[in-house]
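Researcher: Please predict.
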Amino acid sequence: MKPPYQLKIDCYAHVVPPRYKDFLHKVNPAEVDTKIAGTPSLYDMDIRFRIMDQYEPLRQVLTLAWPPIEDVADPARAAELAERANDEMAELVNRYPDRFVTAIAILPMNNMEAALKEAERAIKHLRFRGVYVHSPVNDKPLDRPEFLPLYEMMAGYDLPIFIHPMRMADHPDYRTEKESRYLINSTFGWPYETTAAMTRLVFSGIMEKYPNLKIVTHHLGGLVPFYEERIIEFAHVLERSLARQNKEPLPLTRPAIDYYKKFYADTAIYGNPAGLMCGYSFFGADHMMFGADFPLGDTEGGGRNLRKTINAIEQMDITDESRRKIYEDNARKLMRLPT
């Protein structure tokens, strides 16, 4: 195998800043003890850097790891958590510029007034290059009218919104049960949540309303690339159904599939060259970005998925120019990072 392209920017690297971790423990100790403490590369920079060193030169875009702050805090406390997390991520970026190229702001999505203020503060004063939201937000879809001001703001800034799917074990696989089993909620539920979020943003007309809106999806756009033809056909089925029922037509001026192709997708499917090629055939070289979901879902604390993802990208049947776009250029262009 030829050596990988020299520089890689991991566009979706999770972190739990140490002081934020301690404060979160006071707010919700169970979340820290059960979901964060067991992955020290989230909060211990020495451990994190030792893993990163194996893949040098590697740079990361920092995104806050779970839990969604709106799930563990009331609106006022969520705003405080977001501010603390963003301030400490900014400190990490400034302290380790040879490791972290920027950070993506977490927002208190159960407090939209505070969320808009925090987005503005993070972009203007902390120099962050995007914002980060979970889907769903307190079980609400992202096409709710209350979220429209955020889309308008980010389209105006010409900076991306990163969507992270979330489905916990208390979301059962079947209505006759009380919880999900065998990690179905995260293995398959998260890609589904990504797909559902994209679909709501498309068919609600939000992607039409804000043509400059840029959204980064996790896990290679969920189910969308694999089911492209099914999406196309069922969009026609939906249109005919609405017409037969004399209901309002879809608020779209182009085929629905065109809006799906406007999303960006990271490579965080944990390897699998064939899977990446499926995503590549859908999103194209300009809308795929290197991302390894560091260090979550990884029995090696981040090393396994970095290794598998890089190896899979190297095995893709694409040009060196396209590989460079995936590794570095697309992230720089989308987030307007300095060269």
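Model: Residues 8-335 form a domain with the TIM Barrel fold (CATH 3.20.20.140).
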